[in-house]
Amino acid sequence: MIRVVLDANQFVSALLKPDSNPGQILSLISKDKIALLASDEIIAEITGVLLYPRIMKRIGQSTEYLKAFIERIWSVAIITEGKIQVNVINDDPSDNKYLACAIEGKADFIISGDRHLKDLKAFKGIKIVDPAFFLEIIRATISESF
Hints:
This protein is α/β, with parallel strands linked by helices. The protein contains 8 helices and 6 strands, in the order E-H-H-E-H-H-H-E-H-E-H-E-E-H. It has helices at residues 8-16, 21-30, 40-50, 53-59, 63-76, 96-104, 115-118, 131-141, and strands spanning 3-6, 35-38, 78-79, 109-111, 122-123, 126-129. Helix 1 (8-16) packs across helix 2 (21-30) and helix 1 (8-16) packs parallel to helix 3 (40-50). The longest helix has 14 residues, at 63-76. It is globular. The two termini are 16 Å apart.
């Protein structure tokens, strides 16, 4: 099964627009078509971003709804141990957690719109792509529609 790491903004985008590319990727994860990798550090960032008042207002959901959403992420994700440290992205060191999780979880892809990650294009054989390009790849790989 294809293993992916999503940056925190992909979750925000999916909640804002469920039919968006990130929303479609979360749907593939929930249908067990692809595997989501995450770390405690990534889940903490997702939690912080989703519960930020401005983001909560844009999403238009309650704190309870968003906490339940985060719990669903925990329940479906393969949580990596967080033992690997990476120091590759100097302009935004907080993005290094995505690279570390991807290495530790043996990811096939990191899906991100963040330029600090996307500018790498790949890291230790792990492709770094935006959601639209990832879905193009998946459509060619998974025969049934989603």
